[in-house]
Amino acid sequence: MLQGTSFCNIDCTYCDLSKESRRTKSRMPLDLVLKLIRELIGEALLASEFIVVWHSGEPLTLPPGYYAAMIEAIIDMCEKNAPGVAVSFDFQTNATLIDNAWCDFFRKVRLGY
């Protein structure tokens, strides 16, 4: 599970993140994501299937382009350094921000980006 941002567009009472975290608009940088993936590969912690779940905060408050860049970089790193590992991506979302652009993006991700 990766948290692209802790920012959320709604204020659920059951959320495990603090109100302060849910108001923070920072983004997880690409270099941090790649460092994590590199460490997982280096420690041989990837199974034959590697599922990245974008989770917590509201992932869709970041634009599809953010995830497109992340996904391309993760796939590239795995193809070069962990051949044979099938990589896929999921999103945990409150679904309030889904529009046609997100539907197009999700189709693209499901079809193997």
What does this structure look like?
With about 110 residues, the protein is an alpha+beta fold. The longest helix is centred in the middle third of the chain and has 18 residues. About 40% of the residues lie in helices and about 10% in strands. The two termini are about 20 Å apart. It contains 4 helices and 2 strands. A two-stranded parallel ribbon has the order 1-2. The mean pLDDT is about 95.
Q: How much strand content do the residues show? A: 5-15%
Contiguous helical run count: 4
Show unreliable segments.
Answer: none
Strand order of the largest sheet: 1-2
Class based on secondary structure composition and strand pairing: alpha+beta
Helix content range of the residues, please? 40-55%
Strand element count: 2
What is the straight-line distance between the termini?
19 Å
Radius of gyration: 15 Å
Summed up:
With 113 residues, the chain is α+β, with helices and mostly antiparallel strands.
Task: From the structure above, extract its key features.
two-stranded parallel ribbon; 11% strand; alpha+beta; 2 strands
Fold blueprint:
Layout: H1 19-23, H2 30-42, E1 49-54, H3 64-81, E2 86-91, H4 100-110
Parallel strand pairs: 1-2
Helix pairs in contact: 2-3
